[in-house]
Amino acid sequence: MSLSQGRPYLAIPGPSVMPDRVLGAMHRAAPNIYGGALHEMTASVVADLRRVARTTAHVATYIGNGHAAWEAANANLFSRGDRALIAVTGQFGTSWSNSVERMGVGVERIDFGRRAPADPARIAEALSADRAHRIKAVLVTHVDTATSVRNDIPAIRAAMDATGHPALLAVDAIASLGCDPLQMDEWGIDVLVAASQKGLMTPPGLGFVWFSDKAREVCRASDLRTPYWDWEPRGFPSEYWQHFCGTAPTHHLFGLREALTMLLDEEGLESAWARHRALAGAVWAAFDAWGTAGDIALNIADADHRGTSVTAARIGGGGAARLRTWCEEAAGVTLGIGLGMAEPSDSAYGDFLRVAHMGHVNAHMTLGVLSVMEAGMRALKIPHGPGGIDAALKAIAGV
Ligand SMILES: *Cc1c(COP(=O)(O)O)cnc(C)c1O
């Protein structure tokens, strides 16, 4: 007997839960790619990609995942021998910096550890020390999915501006777009990177790079650009095929069209932000109660510095790994692994996990995950404080 039969729930930070409507919109015959509905739909998707990022910037869409979108951004931003300043607050910052370094760009990393956001003052210091203005761009993850830390993008922009350094600001919003408040234009972001499979509720396979007029001009001569990654034809196509440098990702586009309608026209972006904040509040409340006894703690101590789409936590003594296995095998819920907190060969590797509350997720799903987790802690005799579920219920009920 197992209680895992029934609809499984992948509560990991991407791929996120895909709405049946999104999957249904993709379930169709191959469309005519020469004109008509597909072309009109693509134009509306481009318009809504601007709306979801709160920008009038240009957008290039790639067939690829988040790693592909990073590489796309890098290729357009940099020339060989340029320098990049990277604020690292988790595994995703590290991975983006490795990607840009392997492309031949000089990398200056500021590592803020795994439990704190980037300090804008230190970014400003590094820019001020670069008197020759060799740093072409500052790269930051908005929410680093590995640590669940949220970086303060407007504060980083303000600190950069105060130095008078001309570096562009490039932001990875793969884990936050559609979940956490983000406003590309208002916040002065020059280049924004995202992908389809997280807050955008669409299967993995589309990567997006938004680029401002300023970024377009500054990067015109970037020599890392190759035909496939070049954002120019994708952002300014004179023929339909140039949107995607070849065959369009037809079915992903139909899925994304449906997801954007749900997010922007039905729920509303600000309501989606508020929903993510409320669900995150329930998760945080449960962990705070569990952490009053035993070796359990949220990774980011200050709630103001947490992303609202994913929560990273520690359950010591290998409890996190044991709990993940129990939740999957006994209850049909898959929790995220800890990422970049310890080496897989290290005994501490099993002390970390992540709970996603990202995209097409509602109160009963998040409360269900938390209840399953507490059942698992009881079954496995993992020491934990009382009242976790009650605290989550109070957070949801607002009392
Ligand atoms: C998921 C994620 C990535 C990587 O995306 P892939 O599709 O797995 O390549 C990069 N950055 C952030 C912040 C992410 O959450």
Number of domains: 2
For the record, the CATH architecture of the largest domain stands as 3-Layer(aba) Sandwich
What's the alpha carbon Rg, rounded to whole Å? 21 Å
Query: Per CATH, what is the topology of the largest domain?
Result: Aspartate Aminotransferase, domain 2
Largest sheet: 7 strands, mixed
Lateral arrangement of strands in the main beta sheet: 2-10-9-8-5-3-4
pLDDT < 50 runs, ≥5 residues: none
Secondary structure: helix percent: 40-55%
Treating each run of at least 4 consecutive H or I residues as one helix, how many helices? 13
Choose one word for the global shape.
globular
- Structure class: alpha/beta
Q: Output the CATH homologous superfamily of the largest domain.
A: Type I PLP-dependent aspartate aminotransferase-like (Major domain)
Mind explaining what this structure looks like?
It is a single chain. With 399 residues, the chain is of the alpha/beta class. The chain has two domains: 9-16 and 268-397, Aspartate Aminotransferase, domain 1, CATH 3.90.1150; 31-265, Type I PLP-dependent aspartate aminotransferase-like (Major domain) (Aspartate Aminotransferase, domain 2, 3-Layer(aba) Sandwich), CATH 3.40.640.10. The chain has 13 helices and 14 strands. A seven-stranded mixed β-sheet has the order 2-10-9-8-5-3-4, sandwiched between helices. A five-stranded mixed β-sheet has the order 1-13-14-12-11. Strands 6-7 form a two-stranded antiparallel sheet. β6 and β7 (149-150) form a beta hairpin. α1 (20-26) runs antiparallel to α9 and α11 packs across α12 (363-380). The protein starts with 8 loop residues before the first strand and ends with a helix. The mean pLDDT is 97. Pyridoxal-5'-phosphate binds next to α3.
